[in-house]
Amino acid sequence: MAxxxxxxxxxxxxxRDRILFTLGILLIHRLGSTLPxxxxxxSALQAYFLTQNASGGLTVTDYLxxxxxxxxxxxxxxxxxxxxxxxxxxxxxxxxLVFPKLKKISQEEGGRKRIQRYNRYGTVAICLVQGFAVTxxxxxxxxxxTLSRGLYTFVSMLTVTSGTIFLMWxxxxxxxxxxxxxxSLIIFAGIVSRMPKGVWVLIQSxxxxxxNPVFIIVVFGIFVGVVILVIYExxxxxxxxxxxxxxxxxxxxxxxxxxxxxxxxxxxxxxxxIFASSILxxxxxxxxxxxxxxxxxxTFSVWLRPSGAAYIITYTVLIVFFAYxxxxxxxxxxxxxxxxxxNGGSIPGIRPxxxxxxxxxxxxxxxxxxxG
Length: 372
Hints:
69% of the residues lie in helices and 6% in strands. By secondary structure, it is mostly helical. It has one domain (12-211, 267-330): Preprotein translocase SecY subunit (Orthogonal Bundle), CATH 1.10.3370.10. The strands form 2 sheets. Strands 4-1-5 form a 3-stranded antiparallel beta sheet. A two-stranded antiparallel ribbon has the order 2-3. β2 and β3 (252-254) form a beta hairpin.
């Protein structure tokens, strides 16, 4: 008789230890998100953001807070979150496609570690730039800084950079000693942490008569429907039939068999959304932080505000681009065709010989990109 899967999780010692370790790491992440940078006047900071929220509408700060779990508005040590690392990862992947020499390095023995080291160096550089932007932004808030400008600049840049590097390390620990997907879990924890506050604000709005309960029920039903459709679409796949002829391996003969190559309809998952958000966060933060002192950056921040048409269009285009880009990186149709041919396989309706790779490449491109 099969037991309860949830109770079985805690009966297996190794799995139980990994889950508890992951929860401990996420708790450290949440504690760090409430620890402010030295030299920040929290009362002045809260008064400033209350004034900003009273004006209504979605601001850049709200957008940055969404992925950092409220750490940005708290000016905490984790206020930059893990997004600088993701941004550098995207840049490095693009560089691997543009520069063949760099791609060759990544394919050499030990090249993966070398590229990862470059990625970390680039993350530090991005954090320093964003840390300086945070310093300028804090200086524009009345009475927000309790230290001298020079000392605060040094402390702020060092603190937020160390915070992001520490988050990278926490993500690696979840990968090695936890349940895996460390970076994704850290992002997920930041987003989910804002849900209790959102639910409380929703309840207060209903009590004040600002929202109709029927409207909330309808929206919740739409939300559940969207989740179901996303799961259905994520599990969908297109099976390409492959036929293997009889072949001799050593002294044994293997008979003909029919199998298939599964292609997910959405192979990139939620990665394009995260990549697009990460790319947009960097210019948004720089524009908002330096906007008060540089006129054209202030104009740019208004133009690319999250509630504007320019932002929505740019966000959509980036999602489409990264969906195509990530599919190209993770799926190599030419390599798949080579493996099928070397193992004596063939795809019904596709001519063999030299055209096999090209036709499978086109067919794969059509199935994964067009249909997906």
